[in-house]
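In response to reviewer comment 3 from the previous cycle, which asked for concrete evidence that the modeling workflow produces usable outputs, we include below a single protein chain processed end to end. The sequence was submitted unchanged, and the resulting structure tokens are shown without manual editing.
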Amino acid sequence: MKKICVYAGSNLGEEMEFQIHARHLGEEIVRNGLELVYGGSNVGLMGEVANTVLELGGAVTGVMPKGLFAGEMVHTGLSKLIEVENMHQRKATMSELADGFIALPGGYGTFEELFEALCWSQIGIHKKPVGIFNINEYYEPLLEMVHQGIRKGFMNPSHLDLMIIATEAADLLDRMKTYQYPELENKWKQMSR
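The workflow returned the following structure tokens.
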């Protein structure tokens, strides 16, 4: 694993722990000799991770759609900024560049990016590790929803193995580095009867 894509909120959140742990993740990315790939913003948890990596001498590639966001949101101090035409190209570019994915707390955009990475792993488009940085139990309701999907028959229990869930940055990256793509039950339950 050489490049890690981080999905994170463009807001800081209401708890200081989110910022502290976002910075810890940036420190661990540098300590592990990884390059950060992310959405290119200088605000929110996204900015916290990127700024920490840059301050510690690490490499950061941002991917930003042209003209989508206000100019002051684009991080101007990145190692590399890739401008794309739209959000679809942004996600595709980040996915192509990255060897793994981590979701920090965030909103709709972060949820959508996380679930796309998980879905693409589930159907075999990629076999990269997908980490959930569960700071202050932020993702507990979402994880409960995933378990509900299993209980109600929309997912197989083995698909939980596509997620690496941790509450500390060092633990998360250590587990991602040793990730082995799991043996999954057939996604389409009707086809396995």
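DSSP finds six helices and seven strands in the chain. We consider this sufficient to address the reviewer's concern, and the full set will be provided in the supplementary archive.
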